[in-house]
Amino acid sequence: MSRQSNRTTESKKMNSELFTLTYGALVTQLCKDYENDEEVNKQLDKMGYNIGVRLIEDFLARSSVGRCHDFRETADVIAKVAFKMYLGITPSVTNWSPAGDEFSLILESNPLVDFVELPDNHSTLVYSNLLCGVLRGALEMVQMAVDIRFAQDTLRGDNVTEIRMKFIKRIEENLPAGDE
Amino acid sequence: MAIFSVYVVNKAGGLIYQYDNYVPRAEAEKTFSFPLDLVLKIHDEKAVVSFGQRDGIRVGHAVLSINGVDVNGKYTAEGKEIIEYLKDATNYPVSIRFGRARLTSNEKLMLASMFHSLFAIGSQLSPEVGSSGIEMLETDTFKLHCFQTLTGIKFIVLADPRQAGIDALLRKIYEIYSDFALKNPFYSLEMPIRCELFDQNLKSSLEIAEKAGTFGPGS
């Protein structure tokens, strides 16, 4: 992975295996500490949320995308710009609900789960739940409340990893001035 | 020094970072004998020259120090009222330093909140729908540039009216904020920014902006 940046300060390349190992160490330690898959899922979501609220500013600073005016634009930006920038993958956007407020991101590959196999005693663990938190936190900072969950997970035997995102509402409190 | 100061205001209108890049120029220290030929008055808790401009001491300048000791608002360092002190002939000859008073941090906080409100009014006054807030405020001595991110944080730069490249500078400050403030896990969002690396990088980007006037890709 390399840091996408428009700066000539050394573009830092980091070994993606180190990233996978770091994430794996995080999840296994959480499992040892909490011993309960549901609790671990919640903690991963919380951690992801904290990352998301900070990552959004980095994303906006570097990508100069403007405000998205509907959910389809949001979906495109997330899949084509954000995932590409941070994980180097481009998921596809499919399965739109008739009302246009729900869609799926299909990931063929997930850098977090390279080399990972879920054992039987952790069948309800959502290993990549951090990603859900990140997306939720980031969208909340741009005044969108969304519900995000994993619909399919390659670690649990499905063919692809599918993240289902549902738009709940626009957050009207504390809108930045000039944005109604 | 063509860029005077940088302010960062959070979503609620509170000032979370402030940096002054200029050195107040007009300061004058003179020795006086009784009676004082300047007329002083109290303004905003400071002793200020109201009449009697001469020798580099202008109307509006505040008393900064008496006999080398900095004053405390309208009181001397010992706690006496300056105006009373200077009416007493036994205290002369006295050496007083006058200069443009600097804003205190409380004043800056208030001004930032006020600007936050004015920014919102700016977008409401607009005859067009969906207008942004105040982007630039111009006076004869400085221009104030403001950039609001999609998340509600405002970056404000006060610069010389002729200084170019402030838009690029504002984007650069946004990048520096997203790097050195947000990626510091010990920094809490919306709180005052107290990160060394943020300060250092901000200062160097201000220097670059003053010299080159542009950033260009990859700087």
TrEMBL record, chain A:
Main location, first listed in the record: endoplasmic reticulum
InterPro entries in alphabetical order = Bet3 (IPR016721), NO_sig/Golgi_transp_ligand-bd (IPR024096), TRAPP_component (IPR007194)
User: What keywords does the record list, in alphabetical order?
Assistant: Endoplasmic reticulum, ER-Golgi transport, Golgi apparatus, Lipoprotein, Palmitate, Transport
Write down a Pfam family by its short name: TRAPP
Task: Give the subcellular location.
Answer: Endoplasmic reticulum; Golgi apparatus, cis-Golgi network
Q: Tell me which stretches of the chain form a coiled coil.
A: none
Give a GO cellular-component term: endoplasmic reticulum
GO biological process, alphabetically ordered: Golgi vesicle transport
Q: Which SUPFAM superfamilies match?
A: Ligand-binding domain in the NO signalling and Golgi transport
Domain of life where this protein originates:
Eukaryota
Q: Which family does it belong to?
A: Belongs to the TRAPP small subunits family. BET3 subfamily.
Q: What does this protein do?
A: May play a role in vesicular transport from endoplasmic reticulum to Golgi.
Subunit structure comment from the entry: Homodimer.
Identification of the protein by name: Trafficking protein particle complex subunit
TrEMBL record, chain B:
**Location, primary (coarse class):** endoplasmic reticulum
Q: Which CDD domains does UniProt cross-reference here?
A: TRAPPC4_synbindin (cd14856)
Q: Which InterPro entries match?
A: Longin-like_dom_sf, TRAPPC
The terms describing its cellular component in GO are:
endoplasmic reticulum; Golgi membrane; postsynaptic membrane; TRAPP complex; vesicle
Q: Where can this protein be found?
A: Endoplasmic reticulum; Golgi apparatus, cis-Golgi network; Golgi apparatus membrane; Postsynaptic cell membrane
Q: Where are the transmembrane segments?
A: none
The Gene Ontology biological process annotation of the record reads: endoplasmic reticulum to Golgi vesicle-mediated transport
Residues in a coiled coil are none
Tell me the Pfam families matching this sequence. Sybindin
Question: Is Oxidoreductase a UniProt keyword of this protein?
Answer: no
Keywords, sorted A to Z:
Cell membrane, Endoplasmic reticulum, ER-Golgi transport, Golgi apparatus, Membrane, Postsynaptic cell membrane, Synapse, Transport
Keyword Cell membrane attached: yes
The protein's assembly and partners: Part of the multisubunit transport protein particle (TRAPP) complex. Component of the multisubunit TRAPP (transport protein particle) complex, which includes at least TRAPPC2, TRAPPC2L, TRAPPC3, TRAPPC3L, TRAPPC4, TRAPPC5, TRAPPC8, TRAPPC9, TRAPPC10, TRAPPC11 and TRAPPC12. Interacts with SDC2.
Family membership, please give it: Belongs to the TRAPP small subunits family. TRAPPC4 subfamily.
Instruction: Report the function annotation for this chain.
Output: Core component of the TRAPP complexes which has a function of guanine nucleotide exchange factor activity for Rab1 GTPase. Plays a role in vesicular transport from endoplasmic reticulum to Golgi and autophagy. May play a role in dendrite postsynaptic membrane trafficking.
The protein's name: Trafficking protein particle complex subunit
Q: Which organism is it from?
A: Aldrovandia affinis
